[in-house]
Write a structure and sequence with these properties.
The chain has 146 residues and is mainly beta. 7% of the residues lie in helices and 38% in strands. The protein has one helix at residues 9-18, and strands at residues 30-35, 38-44, 54-58, 61-68, 86-93, 104-108, 111-117, 126-130, 136-140.
């Protein structure tokens, strides 16, 4: 059972008064990493209904929105409400080197995984260089895309 008396509650009330009752910013923690020829972004979304998830891309801006709703029933006696509820929105600015036309997404174990391939023209490639003897030699380009 939860404690009914919380010595830190007065501090929380003071913070709420300072913020003039404004809602606290909702968090959508994420990890982003490159895996081979893909950028992978993973968002933690516990308690989010998968039907509320929405991904959009407009001009290299990926927008992720999700909603977590909880309404106590009339007979429920709420002892604490610390989890943030409502709509969460996060925007990522994607580099020009990513192929936004082929984004894939999946939602498993309360984690949204977004897979964004690197555009073909941004991938490292070999460039042939001819030597003074006229023999071509392949040299790997030192370009890296993210």
């Amino acid at each position: 059972m939860l404690m009914r008396f919380d010595p830190f509650r007065e501090f929380d009330r003071l913070v709420d008064q300072v913020w003039n009752g404004l809602p606290r910013p909702a968090a959508m923690p994420m990890d982003a990493y490159r895996q081979g020829d893909h950028l992978v972004v993973r968002f933690d979304l516990p308690g989010v209904d998968p039907d509320s998830l929405e991904l959009t891309v407009e001009r290299n801006v990926l927008t992720v929105s999700a909603e977590r709703v909880w309404q106590p029933e009339g007979s429920d006696e709420v002892l604490a409400t610390e989890r943030v509820h409502g709509t969460f929105i996060r925007q990522l600015f994607l580099g020009e080197s990513l192929d936004t036309d082929h984004i894939e997404a999946s939602f498993d174990n309360r984690v949204l995984t977004v897979n964004i391939p690197v555009a073909e023209e941004a991938k490292p490639r070999k460039i042939e260089i001819t030597s003074g003897s006229g023999k071509p030699k392949a040299i790997e380009a030192a370009t890296q895309a993210a």
